[in-house]
Amino acid sequence: xxxxxxxxxxxxxxxxxxxxxxxxxxxxxxxxxxxxxxxxxxxxxxxxxxxxxxxxxxxxxxxxxxxxxxxxxxxxxxxxxxxxxxxxxxxxxxxxxxxxxxxxxxxxxxxxxxxxxxxxxxxxxxxxxxxxxxxxxxxxxxxxxxxxxxxxxxxxxxxxxxxxxxxxxxxxxxxxxxxxxxxxxxxxxxxxxxxxxxxxxxxxxxxxxxxxxxxxxxxxxxxxxxxxxxxxxxxxxxxxxxxxxxxxxxxxxxxxxxxxxxxxxxxxxxxxxxxxxxxxxxxxxxxxxxxxxxxxxxxxxxxxxxxxxxxxxxxxxxxxxxxxxxxxxxxxxxxxxxxxxxxxxxxxxxxxxxxxxxxxxxxxxxxxxxxxxxxxxxxxxxxxxxxxxxxxxxxxxxxxxxxxxxxxxxxxxxxxxxxxxxxxxxxxxxxxxxxxxxxxxxxxxxxxxxxxxxxxxxxxxxxxxxxxxxxxxxxxxxxxxxxxxxxxxxxxxxxxxxxxxxxxxxxxxxxxxxxxxxxxxxxxxxxxxxxxxxxxxxxxxxxxxxxxxxxxxxxxxxxxxxxxxxxxxxxxxxxxxxxxxxxxxxxxxxxxxxxxxxxxxxxxxxxxxxxxxxxxxxxxxxxxxxxxxxxxxxxxxxxxxx
Length: 642
Fold this sequence. Notes:
Layout: H1 2-30, H2 32-43, E1 44-49, E2 56-57, E3 63-75, H3 83-94, H4 98-105, E4 112-113, H5 123-132, E5 137-146, H6 154-157, H7 169-173, H8 175-178, E6 183-188, E7 202-204, E8 211-214, H9 218-235, E9 239-246, E10 251-258, H10 271-275, H11 278-281, H12 291-300, E11 309-312, E12 315-318, E13 321-324, E14 332-335, H13 336-342, H14 345-355, H15 357-366, H16 393-400, H17 409-420, E15 424-426, E16 431-435, E17 442-445, E18 450-453, H18 457-473, E19 487-497, E20 500-514, E21 521-528, H19 537-540, H20 542-556, E22 577-578, H21 587-597, E23 602-606, E24 611-616, E25 622-623, E26 628-634
Helix pairs in contact: 1-2, 3-4, 3-5, 9-20, 12-14, 12-15, 12-18, 13-18, 14-16
């Protein structure tokens, strides 16, 4: 009996032993990797390594924003054995107080940054910290954002903060793609945070952010910002905003605002300066530039013909009210083409009346007003339109000439681009493509996007030709370019404040396109409260667009247009002078030609000799009186001297 019991006990013990062996084998063989990973997770401490933020370029690869690598000091408080001594050594190197450093490295936390003095420091300071070889003190790398052209396209680019996060502009909108993925330096530490001996550190490389190629053209952006600076210097406006776009694709080639800022030192500017992208955010009454929509709708619906007669007595009767034209006494007898050239308000009120509120407001909606354009930048406004139920005869009349409604600059640019490209509203585009940061291969190409057709090609062509007439014969003459067909419309809108129009406060604007027969560019500028004796869009804004279009067309290699309307001059206009053919003459012959013809031109010479072998500008060019003609001289008739 006893023997039997012993056998049972031994068998039970053997079973238990086998079970333990099996369990041990299972733990060691099967669960070992999982348990090891769990233990390592408990012991592992990670120091983050920041990726390089993605480069941003213009359409031709000109770098507009990039990350440089900058050293940063991080401390693991539990590994610092002598906190007071460590603080005394670090404080003078990092330009921080002893108390600040000591307080920071005494925190009961895994990892601390010594900021601000220890973040994104110079290589020399990093070398000094490394040489100290202080326990628990490490130097890692962080990205520092650079903007090589300072404030160029600042409101498009935006800026990123100290923690590699996008805060405004493209930097914010595409932060997830630009910031990349963090890497790390891993080490093992015990429960007290002390580094475990004989354990190797692990380095996981960060994944850099994608490269963003914008639709901007840095050269055209430079033209725009140069002209903006001139406007500010001459007229001291409260604000100014300008956009240049390719009407066929919706690509934004340039966008600029005043006041401007430098992204690399954004803290030096008021928040409203860098937070408000006026070109897409600001809502204001457009004035006469909005008449393009009324004209297009009236022509598309065949409510008018440009040859129809119209008499303007200086006002238009609407629901018992006389709404006056901007010109006292009116324009008298006109055709509808004259109405557009003269920007005659009564004529546009007639168009609005014939269209009716449902039809006019349906076109306003189709042209993209009262809704966001979809531009991929933060802070876009959508404008303010009348609720159709509240539109009566007065609201219909004022809307038809751009008063009582509010729009944004980007909406106006896209609406006129629809006229320029043959009738299709495009989505504005600021991103051209994305590229791999390592191989520079294109990973995503952004294609032009048609939102909808708004008018027929025939109507769009008729409106373009009418706008050319405005520049050649009407209120937009100061945007006229010799050799190029320019179409456009002026705008002068009084600013409303607290429900009433503010005396003497205007926003003047001009929107233009060129060449009219095959538009490559649409350019718009709005200037808020310019200080000048005469405040009209045709006087202040039109020349700015003319200058930008002239430089941009030459830069793009667009050849002068054949045909087109000739500019009509009034007795107050300054007529340009045609430069005579002087190259090939002797100096004596040129003097006789220049003085004998009475041309009001200045002459400068370059080189030595009696023969003129070249001239700038070329013969036939139109220049303003008093302009300078440079003559290149040689002692032989075939080439200039060095």
